[in-house]
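Lecture notes, part 5. Sequence design as translation. It can be helpful to think of inverse folding as translation between two languages: the language of shapes and the language of residues. The source text, in structure tokens, appears below.
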């Protein structure tokens, strides 16, 4: 039975694009240094994305005293121009790092004092040029929905002059960014790009660092209850688009919109801060190696009808009969397979972190962050769990599972089938929860059977850990 069959179940009679959407999850990050490596890996992945939708990059890092290896994968093969661009960004970061380096400096300096403006601009413009099309897509919401939402918030804040003024400032700053983006779109001149980068950094200062930050945070918490304090990574994903079903579910979130516009600057600043940090300033001094993973396309057989025969999933239906299908392995799984291979061949001890340009889908997240660490608990190996950012909750029909059978000869146990089985368990359990929750939200009638009983029936207690990511594996950084 193919694990992928689960991804061909639907809760809708329309077998078109209605996908199952499970809850989002953000991983628990075991330590501050792991968080730092993860943020860098996420940033390096995010700054590679140039197309608005179809590109997803995954990045892993290996570091020793002399060398820095960056593993990069995309769902498809990586264009030569993107490789050159990434190598260029890393060499600019090295230059910035060398310029800012002062031996024995005790505290990391501020970006403004350590990096001359022309350097910041060179980095910012290089990255913004590459990611511009993706960036511009953040503004697709400037239509009737956008203006309606702005008017609605103004109405909502009417009674509070301070918060209303703070909202007006944000809208003004967003207008300037928007106009500069359109100007660069129209003339593609360097000066326009610099204006846009400057407008973005001013906006970023306003939202994230300046003295009115607390007022802005308070104001956003009122207009988007439950949506504040999002990280750039959590909003850097497709479901922010107005034309998706997300809109009906959660409404237009101003917080998500703002962070989506800012995400590229947030990533740029993370890289700059790493370049000038006193504890890690030599990060970019090392000899750099880039390992570009080849994309992987695999053919699989899916048989969702068979899944339904064996499991009781009321209200879910199979969207196809048994069929053979061929799909690319998602970028994070390509990096996952590559790193396992390198570790088992004793070629690297990587940071056990996989950065992705957006949150992971249900399949990849279940394999990497849940099933694989769970399987490792039962065996002694030199493999460790990976830390990742989290999961956006969507199941994609084109998803295929990794093939880890190459590990069997060196590991002495069947990692591949154990991970598959565990992944199936987690997904089955998540689907049962999903169906139950939908049922509860549709009717207020009692369930007759509680969650724990259901889990016992289906899962034998493995589900408590579902939202937990790798153990307390602490990474010594730099
Ligand atoms: Zn995926």
């Amino acid at each position: 039975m193919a694990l992928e069959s689960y991804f061909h179940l639907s809760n809708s009679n329309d077998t078109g694009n209605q996908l199952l959407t499970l809850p989002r999850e953000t991983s628990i990050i075991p330590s501050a240094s792991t968080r730092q490596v993860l943020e860098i890996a996420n940033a390096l992945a995010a700054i590679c994305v140039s197309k608005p939708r179809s590109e997803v990059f995954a990045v892993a890092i290996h570091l020793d005293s002399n060398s820095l290896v960056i593993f990069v994968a995309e769902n498809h093969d990586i264009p030569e121009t993107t490789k050159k661009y990434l190598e260029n960004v890393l060499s600019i970061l090295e230059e910035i790092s060398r310029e800012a380096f002062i031996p024995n400096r005790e505290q990391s300096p501020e970006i403004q004092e350590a990096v001359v403006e022309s350097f910041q601009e060179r980095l910012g413009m290089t990255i913004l040029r590459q990611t511009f099309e993706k960036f511009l897509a953040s503004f697709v919401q400037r239509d009737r929905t956008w203006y309606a939402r702005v008017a609605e918030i103004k109405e909502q804040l009417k009674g509070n002059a301070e918060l209303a003024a703070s909202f007006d400032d944000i809208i003004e700053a967003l207008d300037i960014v928007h106009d500069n983006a359109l100007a660069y779109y129209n003339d593609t001149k360097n000066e326009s790009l610099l204006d846009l980068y400057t407008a973005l950094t001013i906006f970023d200062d306003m939202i994230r660092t300046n003295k009115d930050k607390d007022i802005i945070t308070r104001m956003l918490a009122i207009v988007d209850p439950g949506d504040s304090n999002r990280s750039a990574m959590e909003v850097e994903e497709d479901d922010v688009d107005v034309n998706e079903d997300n809109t009906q579910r959660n409404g237009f979130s101003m917080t998500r919109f703002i962070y989506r516009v800012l995400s590229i600057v947030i990533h740029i600043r993370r890289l700059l801060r790493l370049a000038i940090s006193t504890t890690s300033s030599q990060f970019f001094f090392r000899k750099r190696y880039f390992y570009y993973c080849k994309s992987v396309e695999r053919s699989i057989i899916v048989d969702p009808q068979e899944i339904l025969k064996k499991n009781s999933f009321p209200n879910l239906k199979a969207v196809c009969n048994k069929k053979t299908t061929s799909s690319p392995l998602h970028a994070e799984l390509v990096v996952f397979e590559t790193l396992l291979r390198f570790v088992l061949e004793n070629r690297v001890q990587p940071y056990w972190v996989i950065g992705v340009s957006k949150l992971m889908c249900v399949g990849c997240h279940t394999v990497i962050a849940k099933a694989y660490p769970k399987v490792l608990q039962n065996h002694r190996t030199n493999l460790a769990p990976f830390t990742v950012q989290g999961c956006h909750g969507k199941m994609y029909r084109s998803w295929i599972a990794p093939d880890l059978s190459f590990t069997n000869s060196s590991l002495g146990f069947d990692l591949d089938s154990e991970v598959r089985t565990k992944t199936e368990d987690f997904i089955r359990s998540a689907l049962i929860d999903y169906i139950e929750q939908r049922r509860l939200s549709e009717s207020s009638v009692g369930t007759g059977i509680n969650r724990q009983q259901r889990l016992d029936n289906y899962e034998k207690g493995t589900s408590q850990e579902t939202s937990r990511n790798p153990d307390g594996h602490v990474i010594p950084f730099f």
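The translated text above is only one of many valid answers, since several sequences can fold into similar shapes. The pocket of zinc ion is lined by residues 330, 360-361, 363-364, 399 (CB under 6 Å).
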